[in-house]
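Support case: fe (ii) ion complex. Customer-provided input:
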Amino acid sequence: MLTLMVRILFLGEITGRPGIAALKNGLAELRTEYSIDYTIANGEGMTNGFGIGKAHSLQLSKLGVDTVTGAEKLFYKLDMVDFIPKAGFILRPANYPPQCPGRGFRHVTIGDGRFVIINLQGNSNFPRQNIQNAFFAIDGILKKISESGSNEIPIVIFHAETTAEKKTMKFYLDGRVAAVIGTHSKVITADEDVTGKGTAYITDIGRVGSFLSAGGFDPETEIQKLKSQLPVRSRECWNDGVIEGVAVTIDESTGRAEDITRIVKHVTIKEPAGNQG
Ligand SMILES: [Fe+2]
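Agent response - structure generated as follows:
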């Protein structure tokens, strides 16, 4: 049987300018090092940690990211609302209401295989949610793919708050999709595996930005925020740049994941002169 392997890189949440600097200094090398065919990144924190503007999403594309995902922070920058219908490379969660602009999944060719990348947001612990249950949403999408007679290989990005919900999704989709990749916490977990049925899984792929930080932000400011109960503005952090994520190898002939490799690559990032204020 013909075996065609592709390797997909999934990058954790890109956090502000330090995240952009880390990508500029390390992504090309990383792609070569791991023989990457396709790159998917969470971009919802690219603009100062909160949202992603049109210009930054285009920059991400130029830096070599093929698909950008986002969830609860995706529309913090209002120009994304107008831009996303024209930007096929950006995915909002598929379980957002139909009135929400943009799309939640896309069909792509990687190597010689056809894939469908699906972005979902979890239902646990997000405030002000008016979204569909992620489990019913994915059932509907997979049913449509199956009924269309397509042999596309599904890949799921699951942007969820709780580990329990992410793990439950792993078992729900076991053998039905090639990968269930968790995002949102900005802390990479050490529970990556490939199930016996060929589904690659990790609870969270962490962040791209500052390693020695509080969620990518300056720890002192975050301490003040939590101690004062005031809406203190988070500040970017330039300590120890890192690119976190996973590389997943998928066999196009079977649709099964063959391996998943956790990546924590430290890269040099430099705070611009005169940045303190
Ligand atoms: Fe998030």
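The chain has one domain: 7-267.

Case will auto-close in a few days if no follow-up is received.
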